[in-house]
Amino acid sequence: MIQLYIPLNFLGVLYREIKQSLTDLDKMFTLMEREREVADKPGAQPLRGGDWTVRFEHVTFAYEPARTILHDVSFEIPAGKTVAVVGPSGSGKSTLARLLYRFYDVQQGRITIAGQDVREVTQASVRQAIGIVPQDTVLFNDTVEYNIAYGRPGASRDEVVEVARASRIHDFIASTPKGYDTMVGERGLKLSGGEKQRVAIARTLLKDPPILIFDEATSALDSANERAIQAELKSAAQYKTTLVIAHRLSTVVDAHEILVMEAGRIIERGTHQALLARNGRYAEMWALQQSAEGERFTEVMGM
Ligand code: ATP
Asked: Which residue range or ranges hold the ABC transporter domain (predicted)?
């Protein structure tokens, strides 16, 4: 029996290893697939820094020719300011982020960073200038330290600990028996959505890019975690040009401008106060979120 068990057990381990490698490969190919969507122009130069203003000018975009997703979208994020995007699921919020990161090229209009069309400069330099805190952070099957230091390979342990503290994930890490050497990911310690997002914030703090994209998690976090993440985000976003895709209106109150999207169009825009005074769609969403039904807001709005 034992003779049979060992090979079977070994096969089981092998199967899991192969399956995991295939999953990792799959992720890699998905990323490469996206990479192939756009290519650098011959002789493209790196993005020149300076004033990190981001501009969308009359952007029209379709993933597939038959279905236009964004219609004539224009807005500006002045250097160091935060613009927030709200709207129902499928209205095109994440597409804005994907275009800014240049996963795809626009069909009409243009996107500029520091006055340069993102299609004219190298993709690598655009991505170097932007830090993304995604909704669902992919963690590597490696140590906590590796996962944070990924933001800036070569960062020292002290630097990793410093950003982990700032992202309020240090105490949690320190409470595990192996601390920063704890393995995370599918084969290690499982982190909650909020903990993963804090690892992503720590990574981004290490990268310290001039432009930030924050895709707020749709999944409900407990309110203490949510407040901690929002406070951290606010301090991370200070002095950075920031695009926030918001699912909770409380996140957007202080934004320089709020864009309300519906079916790929900006239907309202302004500051929180101006939008409330306008008494339109945003005011309606806000009232709904404030009301006793607030907890059901996410479901009702399909956000
Ligand atoms: P959510 O709040 O649910 O994240 P969203 O407002 O961010 O939604 P997007 O992810 O920008 O919405 O999607 C806008 C539309 O584009 C949706 O109808 C979606 O089905 C479509 N879409 C997104 N990605 C692709 C893709 N890779 N290929 C084809 N269509 C896509």
From this structure: 54-288
